[in-house]
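Contributing new records

If you add data, match the layout below exactly. Sequence lines come first and carry their own label; structure lines follow with theirs. Keep one chain per record. Anything else will be rejected by the validation script.
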Amino acid sequence: MAARLQAGLLFLATVALLIPSAVAAGEPGVQQIFVQRLSVGLSVLLMAAYALGLVFSLKTHPEFFRSAEHDQTGEEPWPMGMALGTLAAVTIAVALVSEVFVESVQQAAEALGMTPAFVGFIVVALVGAAAEMASAFSGARKNRLDLSVGIGLGSAAQIALFVAPVLVLVSYLIGPTPMDLEFWPGAVVMILIATMTASLVTTSGRSAWFVGVLVLMVYLIFALTLYMMPPRAL
């Protein structure tokens, strides 16, 4: 259920990313100010959808997201204060380490001749999501596929529905120029295909190792394309 919810949120984010790019590409006379205003409105809607998704999963319908394994083990949850304190400390530590790693890896990748698209979509994304991947791998090794898939899709949904909209809004305060949600067509197509792949994987609620192979193949196709794509094509 959690994976299906995250896949639905990702599809919503994909729709919001498609609209500015499609309008700008289909209407040559569209002014940039329209795209920027549209991006601000879409950012507010995406953040609202993300907040409502949290209310749905944590407040109004938490029973839909409680795993059977957790009910059988009977583990006692941490006290709220301890959980929030630990989460805050770990978040700060992970953010600092990720910032150092991303900066170092980005410079090394560019020195090795990797394209900016490959660095941004593959290298930086992998390094920045190292903590989430470690948690997802740990859950998968314990046969907690619901937790593993939920972490992976939840991280992507958080970036698409919260982080990106926040960056759009904050860019009007601290950025040199306003940011918008218009991306180059290749990026939008890859995001759409990735969202469709996530939806197909989570629809049945069951999985096998070959399903993982298919997902990895889609990812490797993206990586190969971005690695070989000339910068002028972006």
